[in-house]
Amino acid sequence: MQSAVTSNSQPMDAPKQGMPVTIITGFLGSGKTTLLNHILTNQQGLKTAVLVNEFGEIGIDNELIVSTDENMVELSNGCICCTINNDLVDAVYKVLEREEKLDYLVVETTGLADPLPVALTFLGTELRDLTRLDSIITVVDAANYSLDLFNSQAAYSQIAYGDVILLNKTDLVDEASLNDLERKINEVKEGARILRTKRSQVPLPLILSVGLFESDKYYDAADDHSHDHHDHDHDHSTCGHDHHDHDHDHSTCGHDHHDHDHHHHSDHLENDGFTSISFQCDKPLSIRKFQYFLDNQLPTNIFRAKGIMWFDESPKRHIFHLCGKRFTLDDEEWKGEPKNQLVLIGQNLDREILLTQLENCVCLPSTSRGQGFGK
């Protein structure tokens, strides 16, 4: 299938067959967001659009940002980051209709999504003539890989349909384990193209414009996916997440917000028994109590957690990431009002117990400020 790369047969048409598209998939916490940031900041001469569920999560360096509107961030290198608000097709059109032409499109699927319906969106809709699916990149977390997780249908599909497998976080795992994991990946996908990476750092020519996608094999697989399944997974791409950053400034630690948030998440995380629990609070937490929660109460069936943390003992804004048993806590200055926002993702979680344990980490107010009345 060299004709798409060489231009002998169609000297002018080959590059114009539509904007090339790369789909990035991978399990929770595998390093997809780090990879997206790597792509956005290292494009030389190419103007790339990245479609994500929430661009706030990418943490783009403020020095790079030229302008921001509600659903788009424009960068000084000509790249943009755009959120998928309602429908993937709509978001792609928004990018294609820009006056300033973009060269490349990268789409991130959610961590629990089967990448096939996203691929079929580009193959089986009106986008087929406007875009060209280049490859599916699957990011695998070598440090937190387990056979149980891999046996989930979504994780299996991510490997089976991946054109390039990034075996990430290889610095955290010994050579024997890496070899064993590569063997397991090859059992799912014979002859898989596997790249070992640390912190998702990979030369971009290895993953972009690689021309690996072969559409024929996907049409066969499409017959196994009902239209309902396609629609359900389309919702994966919408993930009405913008309320995290914008809407609930009024919230105290009450349950109304949890109920609302949990409703949004559980709709699209029900595959393989996964659920997502959100906790939001406008009072600080005690570092000591939160550490106790992590050390003694956090259940093993939480695979991923991330959040913005406000601790009574610190004036800083803390960015919290937990993956498997490891967590990081980075700090920076607050830009808005301090508050806590935390999302926990796992299987068969006891929501009420977890929320109670988190509420027990809240400090009693150090001033006589009211419980969220009047501003």
Automatic annotation (TrEMBL):
Disordered, as annotated region: 224-267
Pfam families in UniProt: cobW (PF02492), CobW_C (PF07683)
Catalysed transformations (reactions): GTP + H2O = GDP + phosphate + H(+)
Composition bias type Basic and acidic residues, residue spans: 224-259
Coiled-coil portions: none
Residue intervals of the CobW C-terminal domain: 274-362
Highest taxon of source: Bacteria
Entry keyword set: Chaperone, Hydrolase, Nucleotide-binding
Similarity comment text for this entry: Belongs to the SIMIBI class G3E GTPase family. ZNG1 subfamily.
Record-linked PANTHER family: COBW C-TERMINAL DOMAIN-CONTAINING PROTEIN, COBW-RELATED
Protein name: GTP-binding protein
